[in-house]
Amino acid sequence: MKFGDLRQMIDRTARIQICDHVSGDYMDYRFVEDVPHENDSRTVFGIGLVRSEYREEGVLSYGRNCYAIEIRLLEPETILGSKVLEYEAKDKMKALIINCSPVRTGSTAEIAKLVSEQLSNKYSVNSICIDDYSFAFCKGCRLCHNTAKCAMSDANVIEDIMDEFDAADFIVSVSPSYWADIPGQFKAFIDRCTPWCNTHEPHAYIKPGKKGYAIALRTGPNMPECERIIGSIEHFYGHLEIESVGHLGLTSIEYKADVETRKQEIIEFCKII
Ligand SMILES: Cc1cc2nc3c(=O)[nH]c(=O)nc-3n(C[C@H](O)[C@H](O)[C@H](O)COP(=O)(O)O)c2cc1C
């Protein structure tokens, strides 16, 4: 299909991003009618939804949470050859792995590392640790229920983490049990995600279609405690409209060295991601 045909079908109020599929260069347009007609003869390679860069414009936009239709175009004479295929290889789906423990080098980190190694064969993997970020506790002011934005001065820190979520197709949260629940640092992060919680309108959004996995570990021998942690993570995913599609509970893990004997179990789990 040529862009000239597609332009007739696009909502005239939608924000548009025209992207050259081969070079990756793009231009933002406020309305489809602003897109120059010289694009009309170009072939449409694909259409998607991207976060709009028209962030702070007018009352209808909830700042960073406003979207544009991205249209990838090819020059009329482009042959679908090696250049395009090479570009496609770079367009791997993305996985975000979160170490929900404040310990950067412990057993949780070891499991997160193993998961990252397994997934990097298929996906572009980004790993973060909750301890990479410093933020205050949610004050429960509920201003975000009306504004979809956090009023606290360090809101940008949480937005940075949510940008990582937004960039990912799959999210894998790996959490130890601290007093039979997720660590306080991770809980504090979840509380600060209230602007994104779907129980109030307006609320902030991450792109739809993401899938979430939860891995819980603990030192004690019984699984119900792991299930509780998995439940907390899946509850969080649910309110962000991330679909929970798999979880793993690992008992009897205290130190990094204990992960070695569970390696195969974790590798098997990674096969479903
Ligand atoms: C503050 C704290 C509380 C803990 N509470 C529990 C608990 O309630 N039940 C349990 O089975 N393990 C508990 N553990 C053990 C951790 O779940 C276990 O050592 C885990 O491997 C820690 O991973 P990390 O070092 O990567 O944070 C606790 C550990 C800490 C540091």
Descriptive account of the structure:
It is globular and about 65 Å long. The protein is an alpha/beta fold and 273 residues long. The chain contains 8 helices and 9 strands. The chain has 2 domains: 3-87, no CATH class; 94-270, Rossmann fold (3-Layer(aba) Sandwich), CATH 3.40.50. Helix 6 (184-192) links the parallel strand 7 and strand 8 (211-217). The strands form 2 sheets. A 5-stranded parallel β-sheet has the order 6-5-7-8-9, with helices on both faces. It has a 4-stranded mixed β-sheet with strand order 2-1-4-3, with no helix packed on it. Helices cover 28% and strands 22% of the residues. The two termini are 34 Å apart. It binds flavin mononucleotide. The site of flavin mononucleotide (FMN) has 18 residues, from helix 3.
Question: Mind telling me the CATH superfamily name of the largest domain?
Answer: Flavodoxin domain
Strand order of the largest sheet: 6-5-7-8-9
The oligomeric status of these chains comes to single chain
Overall pLDDT score? 89
Q: Assign the structural class, choosing from mainly alpha, mainly beta, alpha/beta, alpha+beta, or little secondary structure.
A: alpha/beta
Distance between the termini: 34 Å
Strand content: 15-25%
